[in-house]
Amino acid sequence: MGSAPPAFIGAEEVEKHLPRASLLLPALEAALGNFSSGPAGGVVQPLRTVLAVPGHGGYLGVMPAYSAADDALITKLVTFYEHLKDSPAPSHQATVLLFDPRNGSLKAVLDGSVITAKRTAAVSAIATKLLMPAFAEVLCILGAGVQAYSHYEILTELFTFKEVRIWNRSKEKAEKFASSVHGPVRVCSSAQEAVVGADVIVTVTMAAEPILSGAWVKPGAHINAIGASRPDWRELDDELMKNCFLFVDSKEAALTESGDVILSGAEIFAELGEVLKGTKPALPEKTTVFKSLGLAVEDAVAAKFVYDAWSAAN
Ligand SMILES: NC(=O)C1=CN([C@@H]2O[C@H](COP(=O)(O)OP(=O)(O)OC[C@H]3O[C@@H](n4cnc5c(N)ncnc54)[C@H](O)[C@@H]3O)[C@@H](O)[C@H]2O)C=CC1
Ligand SMILES: O=C(O)C1=NCCCC1
To answer: Any idea which UniProt keywords this protein has (predicted)?
Structure first.
């Protein structure tokens, strides 16, 4: 007898079983600590392979991971395309394959787009909790796409801001964002207007040139830098990169994939996992940048969470 056919868990079902990204927080904190503990942490995760699709401005990322603590073995396949102006397809699309670690059988094929949106925002929320200044009042989001929504949701769920500001390259999209989310959001006409005086800043754009200048940033602010995941792409300028304390999800990934890190020559202070383990301090009183590239182990945690909830309900 062969093994049972894999379950197919589409975007709606993922959403149903993972209604709030904050449900992932305890498992993600543990996984980030395990990732930064080397072999003792039980996470096996090579640097992802990113394949360019010449002539189409696209990339295919292959992201395998095993987490012993989560009993999860996955690979995520994610595509991201720079310019899809005349296409209804989203810029990022992903699928997660979940295997049984005991025998390698494929247990489920899950939509990976909702997982990517939620686990990325949840990791930024972990960084924000550790690194934002005391009494943070103003949240600023640069970008108005999928990640802008997931970051808004978790950051406003976990923290109380007096003001939320958004800027996007096309103002129309920022206005749509402001009218779709549940709380008040101020639409700004320039990135500078949105950033000046902000305590927590999130960059979630497809920019390849800096959109955030260190000259605008309030000393002591915390920045979650989510975009610019190619070695020649930037979201943050050199002034910011060189005058901040730089935290990353993975040092290896940051030094291979992040244009903001590689091209600025900025020194990495710590991995987020090291802060979670207590081997490096958080420094919330300093200007801090969390450079996120996205780890497959985060997808493993999220896929396992969804699969377990789905199995319990089916
Ligand atoms: N660190 C991580 O784990 C992850 C990072 N990402 C990255 O986060 C960023 C946002 O992703 P999504 O929200 O899914 O994308 P999206 O396509 O839904 O939104 C992108 C936003 O950037 C804006 N934009 C596009 N080109 C721009 C430019 N040249 N300058 C300024 N703004 C520009 C668009 O108007 C849009 O509002 C991307 O760079 C993506 O690769 C995405 C998933 C995971
Ligand atoms: O971790 C991910 O998933 C991604 N990271 C960078 C850009 C594409 C998706």
So the answer is: Cytoplasm, NAD, NADP, Oxidoreductase
